[in-house]
Amino acid sequence: MAAFAYKAYAADGRARSGRVEAESRQRAVAKLRLDGLQVFAIEAAAEAIPFWRRDLLGRDRVNDAARIAFLKEFGTLVAAGLTVDRALRLVERQASGALKPIIADVLERVVGGASLSRAMASHPQAFPADMVDILRAGEATGTLVDVLASLTASIERRDAVRRHLSSALIYPALLVLMAIGTLVMIVGVLVPALAPLFEG
What is the chain's percent helix, strand, coil content, to nearest 5? Predict the structure, then answer.
């Protein structure tokens, strides 16, 4: 089951919000209607993610590694002849973390008649605008399989460069920390110990 965040009007006219678990968006809405609520907004709710997997603003992170895994699996299935909705359904079953409810929502929108790019555009934190634009072009030209492969390779190169830069910066950062530690030790320990020698 997936979790959905909703906003709805109760029978007394007051607005309410919360979370509900259901197999799909339609079933979530139906479940809320049985409780006497009139839903006016409902979106897939992200899973609770440990703080070390969140960015500085506390949002769930969908990094390049997760995007690459999704694009590779999805692209392979589409290239094998599966329809977009069928491929999404299979990928969603294997997904985990912050991306799982997002894929579930994209699938729901595609089944409801939206194009893949339009459905993905609803989740800019997972699928940036440039990525969505490229997929939209692939849909329009009938080259979605080729575009998925090209996009995956592009993100892989970007991720490799980022990892290389991160590794290259570790050693200089350690040197700076060691220098600061040495300076603190001199000022806090050595200078006070030598100060009496210069008194008088």
Answer: 65, 10, 25
* Whole-structure pTM value: 0.58
- Per-residue burial over 15-43, b = 16 or more CB atoms within 10 Å of its CB, e = otherwise: eeeeebebebbeebbebbeeeebebeebe
Cα–Cα distance between 21 and 138 in angstroms, integer?
34
Structure tokens at 120: 């993905």
What does the pLDDT average to over 33-51?
74
Superfamily designation of domain 53-156: Type II secretion system (T2SS), domain F (1.20.81.30)
Angle (CA) 62-65-66 rounded to 5° is 45
pLDDT computed for residue 135 by the predictor = 94
Each residue's pLDDT tens digit, 72-97: 999 999 999 999 999 999 999 888 77
Domain ranges of the chain: 2-45, 53-156
Q: How far apart (Å, rounded) are the C-alpha atoms in residues 75 and 87?
A: 8
Using CA of residue 17, residue 18, residue 19, residue 22, what is the dihedral sign? negative
Cα 129 from Cα 136, distance rounded (Å): 10
